[in-house]
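Severity: low
Component: inverse-folding endpoint
Summary: output formatting inconsistent between runs
Steps to reproduce: submit the following structure tokens with default settings.
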């Protein structure tokens, strides 16, 4: 009898802990009950398991902890797997008062390695480079390979350039990775001191740009002088889509999305996908990733964003919203206090 009672109790607790719906903007605890720390994050689906990588801001702003990784089979219940790249895993310049932001991970089938890219910066935000780290396991530990700026291009450098782009190449800040169906990977990042987005094809190992870099062939400037951040690309029916935010620090702003037949452009800006109250601030959040929703519908996606809390960055929240791509490349992003997979069966 006693055994039966404890089994029932355990089952009850377990059932209680299981989340069955997304609650955008609410505290999102992991399976240990602690708030998830994976800001500016991205998802990797590998062998039926989702991995969520992001900035661990437990100690507030800057790289004081490192890149955390969580695993899940249902995208709702996340188990903390620890730090995939602890702060000490990157050069000193990028720890404590430096930053290690917007980490994203791809799996390279050829090399069987997990490759992480991130935006690394020093305190004055002048190094603005891409960091690359590699691991044999999805959960890490990732081994830091180095940092650089993938593309050098004369866009008409400012005369006094504290980021030294003439010598070092265009700055590398808000970023994302995208793996295409043909196995080729791309980095999207805010370059030219956040004025222009770059899309750059990666080499076969995914550890650097494809060489030689040739504009129009291996990389391109897109949304030129538009000042976009938070790039979140995805593909649907052979077309490429890119969500992005404006550039206003931690303050939320209006989102926009663009569409292209070719990943290197031309990209057509379609405008703000958000509708309804607080659309003008993307529901007080900033894009970080777009994930194809699990299930049969190929037009169903999840928009992932950060609701930053600049006064207390560790209490920044996650805004995940469902959307579908409608005919004519139309996307409508609507707020929901709570949603589950049934939204896609309507
Ligand atoms: C906006 C970026 O999107 C964030 O990742 C972060 O770098 C903040 N700026 C810092 O102000």
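Observed output (run 2 of 3):
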């Amino acid at each position: 009898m006693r055994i039966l009672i404890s089994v029932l109790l355990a089952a009850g607790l377990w059932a209680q802990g299981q989340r069955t719906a997304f609650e955008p903007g609410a505290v999102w605890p992991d399976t240990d009950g602690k708030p998830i720390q994976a800001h500016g994050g991205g998802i990797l689906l590998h062998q039926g398991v989702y991995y969520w990588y992001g900035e661990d801001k437990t100690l507030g702003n800057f790289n004081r902890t490192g890149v955390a990784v969580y695993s899940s089979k249902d995208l709702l219940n996340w188990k903390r797997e620890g730090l995939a790249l602890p702060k000490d895993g990157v050069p000193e310049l990028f720890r404590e008062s430096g930053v290690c932001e917007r980490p994203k991970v791809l799996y390279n089938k050829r090399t069987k390695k997990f490759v992480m890219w991130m935006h690394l910066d020093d305190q004055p935000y002048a190094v603005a480079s891409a960091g690359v780290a590699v691991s044999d396991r999805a959960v890490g530990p990732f081994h830091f390979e180095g940092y650089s700026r993938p593309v050098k291009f004369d866009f008409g450098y400012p005369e006094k350039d504290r980021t030294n782009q003439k010598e070092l190449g265009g700055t590398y800040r808000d970023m994302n990775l995208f793996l295409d169906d043909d196995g080729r990977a791309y980095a999207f990042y805010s370059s030219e001191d956040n004025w222009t987005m770059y899309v750059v094809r990666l080499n076969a190992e995914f550890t650097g740009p494809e060489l030689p870099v040739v504009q129009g062939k291996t990389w391109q400037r897109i949304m030129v002088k538009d000042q976009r951040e938070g790039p979140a690309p995805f593909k649907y029916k052979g077309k490429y889509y890119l969500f992005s935010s404006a550039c206003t620090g931690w303050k939320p702003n209006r989102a926009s999305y663009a569409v292209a037949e070719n990943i290197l452009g031309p990209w057509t800006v379609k405008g703000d996908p958000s509708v309804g109250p607080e659309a003008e601030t993307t529901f007080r959040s900033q894009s970080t990733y777009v994930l194809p929703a699990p299930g049969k519908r190929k037009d169903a996606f999840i928009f992932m964003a950060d609701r930053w809390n600049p006064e207390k960055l560790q209490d920044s929240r996650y805004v995940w919203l469902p959307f579908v791509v409608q005919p004519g490349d139309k996307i409508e992003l609507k707020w929901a206090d709570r949603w589950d997979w049934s939204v896609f069966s309507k």
